[in-house]
């Protein structure tokens, strides 16, 4: 599928925004270079681009060099150095969307708006582009229109949306039609369905308000940490680090300031559990963060919300305000002296790598989202150099519940080494895609029968950076020791092309590599090219060894989780579906590569020289 | 015991600077011992232009920048049991591959040729034309490393590779004992 290569956008004339206004925006954020993301977001939203002159002005206000500002502005895909349309439509280009009719939606938008993907209309009204998974895999194909989300697109719906936009309707009205919603929660729910298919005991069942926090203020911080350790809670973002231990590290040692950061940047394709928690359990999340703040002695917190979930920001702001008004955030929380904690929301801007905690911290600091070298770990030196706890949304929610119900209650659920429940984001070829809260330890077969996907041919556990398994491995269990996952379960039936999926996932990693480590930046491109070669039937048997060899180089020599897991689509399918690769290979004839096309290679020179080849044009004789 | 026949070696320089061939001479006095084991077939060393027999080892310097390079390389692959890429140009394209960086152009090849022969600031080309004698082979769209055109058995790295690494590779290949490079020989920092 060639849709990702878009043509060069037509240039749209636009004057740079007035410098005074830019300086005003910078002043709003205290000319603080650490708030670069917010400054750039505001500029981008207001003027639809970040002009060279704008970068000069921001650099002047924040006392940075222009190139430092440009380094940030050019890193994130939601910031644009060229003028974008007043309405930017970003179609989610995940493999699930492709399998659910993205082609027709693309064609319809292109036709209705009169521009191609990657272009901006000449009058500066519309931009059309692709973006990787926006966390709507259970209702694909989906699209972002400025900061709102539209799901379950069809050709007809795409046409209606495009026509409404052309008629001057606001994206907000299109995403939430009818009467204006009575609350931010209703607005979010009318825009995006939460699709809760199975509510478990911990998170999605009935949850009493602030019971965990009430408990937390009645015991000492050390007791909170001990409770966490006894509960066996492990991080739910994918890596599975023991939460209690993380908090203990962060609480130890002397420090002037400490921070609690919530990682709400679930960029792993096929994951959308945090979206549902943010929509349905925002109080529980903030309660959990407040508990963590008490445990480690933090006064400041940040929710790092992925740019794709900007539509949830009003909801979260509303909840934060409510809690401040109720004395659950701010100074002397619940009347406890010396217990102060408040939270700000940091919006991301479309970079998968910012889900890695080091990169996330860099981004909060107003830097390009590049991972940091470890050690020191964030619990020793994190945000602005202070001890920082970074946990996933789900982890914080669990933490609040554990304090309420006790460590043993949580520990008794699940399996040895994997305690409690887990949210699974199920998408792809099944009857009921959506969110399932289940205790750890179910087999894939059991999960498939719950979601109605028994005819699955392959299941991608944990998204592209996880594991793809075939039917012979469906008895494996969803635990940290067997099939570890951040929650994404993507189901593919027998009609799907495994190599197409692998090639797509590699293109995803190529796009999302931050570029710091060469083996990741370049190696993933080579892997993607090699898979393309397999798909064309041009691979040699020894290319299978090349895939393994290159993968292990990338894994060994990359410094963050992205590079370490990026070859997984290749490696796990090689393991689960070896015959798919071997059927696509054939040995080279006399060692001459079939992939090298001499006719294509000399065609340009033939045209320039206006003569044919003595060597390779067979019918040519002197 | 019958005397072993000498191993036949062929060499060629494609899009290279001939430096790698010169580096073969850095084997120094060990060359005398080595020559007792091998004889040269097609090579610029003895100016034999065509293969006279099938060879055991082919050594190629330089990448492929024109159609003749491709032709020669394919000829080597068909006539040699073991094919060695000698030096960085052969392995990765090297210096000539700098022209691959001209890519954001409607016609990168034409842009390259024009700058090289017509528009470059320091060009003295009284004809003001891009050379186009019929005897000149057609230039490829970009410079290709050898391994993209044919299967390569061994890569000897370096620019140019040292006499030591060339000698130890050839000597151990001839003895049937090549097991990869000594780290010290290919460590450049």
Query: Which structural class should the secondary elements of chain A be placed in?
Result: alpha/beta
Largest interface: which pair? A-B, 24 and 28 residues
Strand order of the main beta sheet of chain A, please? 5-13-12-16-14-15
Relevant CATH superfamily of the domain at 7-96 and 139-177 in chain B:
NADH:ubiquinone oxidoreductase-like, 20kDa subunit
- Helical content of chain A, roughly? 40-55%
Shape of chain A: globular
CATH architecture of the domain at 211-412 in chain A: 3-Layer(aba) Sandwich
Averaged pLDDT of chain A: 93
Task: Describe, in plain words, how this protein is organized in 3D.
The complex is a heterodimer of chains A (622) and B (189). Chain A has 26 helices and 16 strands. Chain A has 622 residues and is of the alpha/beta class. Among the domains of chain A are: 94 residues, 3-Layer(aba) Sandwich (Glutaredoxin), CATH 3.40.30; 202 residues, 3-Layer(aba) Sandwich (Rossmann fold), CATH 3.40.50; 82 residues, Roll (Ubiquitin-like (UB roll)), CATH 3.10.20.600. Chain A has a six-stranded mixed sheet. The N terminus of chain A is likely disordered. Chain B is an alpha/beta fold. Chain B has a domain of 129 residues: 3-Layer(aba) Sandwich (Rossmann fold), CATH 3.40.50. The relative contact order of chain B is 0.19. Chain B is built from six helices and seven strands. Chain B is elongated, with a radius of gyration of 19 Å.
């Amino acid at each position: 599928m060639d849709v990702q290569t878009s043509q060069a956008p037509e240039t749209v004339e636009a004057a740079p925004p007035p410098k005074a206004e830019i300086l005003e925006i910078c002043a709003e954020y205290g000319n603080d270079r650490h708030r670069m993301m917010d400054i750039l977001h505001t500029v981008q939203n207001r003027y639809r681009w970040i002009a060279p002159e704008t970068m000069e002005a921001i650099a002047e206000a924040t006392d940075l060099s222009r190139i430092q500002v440009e380094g940030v502005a050019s890193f994130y895909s939601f910031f644009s150095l060229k003028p974008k349309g007043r309405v930017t439509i970003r179609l989610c280009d995940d493999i699930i969307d492709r399998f659910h009719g993205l082609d027709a939606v693309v064609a319809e938008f292109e036709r209705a708006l009169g521009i191609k993907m990657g272009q901006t209309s000449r009058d500066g009204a519309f931009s059309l582009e692709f973006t990787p998974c926006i966390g709507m895999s259970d209702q694909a194909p989906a699209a972002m229109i400025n900061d709102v989300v539209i799901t379950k697109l069809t050709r007809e719906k795409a046409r209606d949306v495009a026509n409404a936009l052309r008629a001057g309707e606001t994206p907000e009205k299109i995403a939430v039609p009818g009467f204006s919603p009575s609350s931010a929660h209703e607005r979010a729910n009318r825009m995006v369905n939460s699709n809760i298919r199975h509510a478990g005991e911990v998170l999605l069942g009935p949850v009493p308000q602030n019971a965990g926090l009430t408990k937390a203020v009645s015991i000492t911080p050390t007791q909170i940490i001990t409770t966490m350790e006894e509960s066996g809670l492990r991080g739910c973002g994918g890596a599975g680090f023991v939460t209690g231990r993380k908090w203990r590290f962060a609480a130890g040692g002397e420090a002037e300031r400490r921070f609690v950061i919530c990682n709400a940047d679930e960029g792993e394709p096929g994951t959308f559990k945090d979206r549902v928690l943010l929509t349905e359990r925002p109080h529980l999340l903030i309660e959990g963060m407040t508990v963590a703040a008490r445990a480690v002695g933090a006064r400041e917190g940040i929710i790092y919300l992925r740019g794709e979930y900007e539509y949830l920001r009003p909801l979260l702001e509303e909840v934060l305000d409510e809690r401040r008004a109720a004395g659950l955030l701010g100074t002397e929380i619940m009347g406890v002296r010396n217990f102060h904690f408040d939270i700000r929301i940091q919006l991301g801007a479309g970079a998968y790598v910012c889900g890695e905690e080091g990169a996330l911290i860099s981004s909060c600091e107003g830097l390009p989202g590049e991972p940091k070298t470890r050690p020191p770990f964030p619990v020793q030196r994190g945000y602005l150099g202070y001890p920082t706890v970074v946990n996933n949304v789900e982890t914080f929610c669990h933490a609040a519940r554990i304090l309420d119900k006790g460590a043993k209650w949580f520990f008794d659920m699940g399996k040895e080494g994997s305690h409690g429940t887990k949210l699974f984001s199920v998408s792809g070829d099944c009857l009921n895609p959506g969110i399932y809260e289940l205790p750890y330890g179910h087999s894939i077969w059991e999960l498939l029968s719950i979601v109605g996907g028994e005819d699955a041919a392959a299941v991608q556990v944990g998204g592209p950076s996880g594991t793809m398994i075939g039917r012979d491995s469906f008895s494996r269990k969803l635990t940290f020791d067997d099939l570890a996952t951040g929650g994404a379960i993507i189901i593919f039936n027998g009609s799907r092309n495994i190599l197409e999926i692998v090639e797509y996932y590699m293109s995803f990693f190529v796009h999302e590599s931050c570029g710091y480590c060469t083996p990741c930046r370049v190696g993933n491109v080579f892997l993607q090219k090699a898979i393309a070669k397999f798909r064309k039937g041009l691979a040699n048997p020894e290319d299978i060894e090349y895939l393994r060899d290159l993968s292990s180089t990338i894994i060994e020599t990359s410094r963050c989780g992205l590079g370490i897991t990026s070859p997984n689509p290749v490696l796990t399918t090689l393991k689960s579906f070896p015959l798919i690769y071997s059927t696509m290979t054939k040995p080279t004839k006399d060692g001459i590569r079939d992939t090298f096309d001499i006719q294509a290679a000399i065609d340009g020179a033939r045209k320039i020289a206006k003569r044919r080849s003595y060597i390779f044009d067979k019918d040519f004789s002197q | 015991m019958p005397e072993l026949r000498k191993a036949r070696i062929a060499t060629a320089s494609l899009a290279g600077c001939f430096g790698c061939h010169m580096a073969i001479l850095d084997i120094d006095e060990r060359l005398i011992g080595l020559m007792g084991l091998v004889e040269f077939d097609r090579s610029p060393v003895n100016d034999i232009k065509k293969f006279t027999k099938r060879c055991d080892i082919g050594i190629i310097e330089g990448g492929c920048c024109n159609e003749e390079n491709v032709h020669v390389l394919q000829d080597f692959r068909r006539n040699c049991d073991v094919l060695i890429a000698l030096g960085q140009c052969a392995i990765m394209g090297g210096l000539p591959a700098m022209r691959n960086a001209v890519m954001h152009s409607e016609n990168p090849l034409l842009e390259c040729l024009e700058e090289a022969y017509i528009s470059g600031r320091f060009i003295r080309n009284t004809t003001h034309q891009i050379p186009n004698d019929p005897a000149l082979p057609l230039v490829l769209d970009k410079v290709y490393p050898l391994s993209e055109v044919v299967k390569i058995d061994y890569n000897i790295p370096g620019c140019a590779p040292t006499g030591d690494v060339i000698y130890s590779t050839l000597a151990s290949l001839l003895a049937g004992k090549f097991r990869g490079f000594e780290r010290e020989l290919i460590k450049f920092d």
